[in-house]
Amino acid sequence: MEPVSKVKARAEAFQVLGLPTHANANDIRDAWRNIAFHDHPDHTDGDHSVFSQAKSAYDFLRSEGLTRKGVTSSSTPRRPRLKKRVIELDADEIKACRDLLNPEYVLSDMSAIDHAATSDDQDHSYDHVPDAIGCFGRDLTYFVASSVCEGENRVALPTSVLASCRKTETEILTFKSKVAGSGEIVIPDPIRERKFPGARNVRIRFEADQQMRDLFELAG
Description:
Layout: H1 3-16, H2 25-38, H3 49-63, E1 85-88, H4 91-100, E2 126-128, E3 130-136, E4 139-144, E5 151-158, E6 170-177, E7 183-186, H5 189-195, E8 201-206, H6 210-218
Parallel strand pairs: 2-5, 4-8
Antiparallel strand pairs: 1-3, 3-4, 5-6, 7-8
Helix pairs in contact: 1-3, 2-3
């Protein structure tokens, strides 16, 4: 059962037993005993609906370990551990990024990066498109197979990974690098807040092959 479903099921079980969600083990056992006695079919002319619901609720809370002495409902369930995952971009998403890499759409707003600066000169630009996106909670890592070139670079990124929208939003970010090859760029906070809804941290890894993606996922 998923954590959200489990929390909902627990709240419903407490409601059936007539208890607040912060009730302790003694409260749960006492509520069950009271219902089991007063609403037993032997005492209700054979009507077992209340008894059956209460028994199911008590059995569920017992399976959750909430009927053991010293245990309170607020102590569980534990917060689920975040796992890393890699989302492979499909052909349409990659095509959308490539189509957007047109000079008239350039957004020169990467000047806040320490080792990069924007430029109005597009003669030596180099275009990049990610193949996959690594997700770890609200942290995003874009994997780009191509290498950073010395000078101006442009990269088209799907920015709405964490947003609840049907259409994928794509933006072009432009930056200038003093070196060529592999590397990683961290998107400055002002740009991240404007262009990557819901993200806490955004970075781009260049020369990112399949092994790098696998290592990212395994590290989670």
